[in-house]
Amino acid sequence: MTNESGKYVVRTFGCQMNEHDSERIAGLLETDGLERAENESDADVVVLNTCCIRENADNKLYGTLGHLKTWKDAKDGRRIVVAGCLSQKDRGGVRDRAPWVDVVMGTHNVHRATELLAQARSNGPVTEILDEAVIDDHALFPSALPVRRETSWNAWVTIQIGCDNTCAYCIVPAVRGKEVSRPTADIVAEVGSLAANGVTEVTLLGQNVNSYGRDLAVAERRETGEGSVAPRFAELLRAVGSVPGIRRVRYTSPHPKDMRTDVLAAMAETEVVCEHLHYPLQSGSDRVLALMHRGYTAERYLERLAEARRLMPDLAVTTDIIVGFPGETDDDFVRTLEVAAEADFDSTYTFIFSPREGTEAATMVDRFVDPAVVADRFERLRTVVERSALLRHQARVGRIEEIVVEGVSKRDPGVTTGRTRQNKLVHFRTDRVLRPGTYATAEITRGAPHYLEGRLVEVIADATHKVRIPVASIG
Ligand code: SAM
Ligand code: SF4
Fold this sequence. Notes:
Strand content: 15-25%
Largest sheet: 6 strands, parallel
Low-confidence stretches: 469-475
Number of helices: 14
Bound molecules: S-adenosylmethionine, iron/sulfur cluster
Structural class: alpha/beta
Mean pLDDT: 90
Number of strands: 19
Strand order of the largest sheet: 2-1-3-4-5-6
Radius of gyration: 23 Å
């Protein structure tokens, strides 16, 4: 504890991992005495938690830092912290481009946020980027730090950090380090304590969840000389799914090369695991998949998907696709369209390839695809996916679905929004005030490409979470 006073805001760029790290940074700052501010004008400390997966994230950060210089100059004592993947990647570069930043810290330093802030207050600007996580430190996993959760009926739980894969386009292994699994007992204990505070839904987070536990198994075998070295994600799903009070379990992201039948069976057999699989395809062309080093073919991807649907007939499937990977020809792209049509996705996150310095794909400059061609491919893919999404959504009309209420629409206060087990938004009209986190059923009345509409049938369980999840540390 360094005992700060004043107010803070945390701005997050990027993925769920980053949002989860932000919750931890906020939790640490609050434990240290800072209060949350609504916006920068009220704040004394601004933390930018950065992402570097795609290029526009960098541009956004440096643009924001430009505005923050004026903010900082307007009042004495204001401080700026830049955390996350971009500081890990750019290291001293952040300070070179924005010398008015007080703390630059990397992805392995989340637990040091308050000390670094205090250091900057007494001794001036500080940069601390650890090359890798400190393995024997319980603070290694962001979930083990104090937390300030944004929503409180659902929670992210980190099960694994880093990534041992070598996807040619991806900067994650360079900025998040090697794969380390968190012990199952710690994860189950955290989920138990979340449930005791009224959390009913958890999302397990890792870059390659299918390999969860392999490192733990290998270490155990080295020590005892026996036991299987198979990954333990299926067991983890079953263990988390049996924690009393937990009604929904989700996870992201699996890797198609490591997806195994035991995981699909655990999903199908564990009632609280939602019927939703986020299953990143990246490309439908075997040639491009090989260039990307993804380790599977389109055929294998589709076979596993068919198996998943056999075990879970009502499964919703979403994916990530990269358009314009270096050397992607029109024939390659047509394969992506064909595989996307065959996979019959509920939605996709489509990314335009963005060269990330330090990755293999960034060196394939002579094969970069013309941006106009990429934009055209992006639109063609959108059309294919919206068609399957619309048909899949229309097929749900007339069904009664379980939803968890997320809140009232900002645009129309007469409309409440909930989320189904398949992760679909349902908008419905009601005069009842339903607290976020309430479970209800709704009849689906209309399907659109990106959401459903419905009518409230009945409330099945009131929200039970405490308004503010207390700061908790498991260690
Ligand atoms: N570990 C996950 C996996 O293997 O699917 C994904 C992690 S990454 C944070 C999320 C998505 O960003 C990837 O699935 C990929 O589609 C996209 N992505 C990563 N690097 C990219 C790049 N250089 N250009 C465009 N999209 C990229
Ligand atoms: Fe990146 Fe591939 Fe690891 Fe996912 S599996 S984080 S895309 S290297």
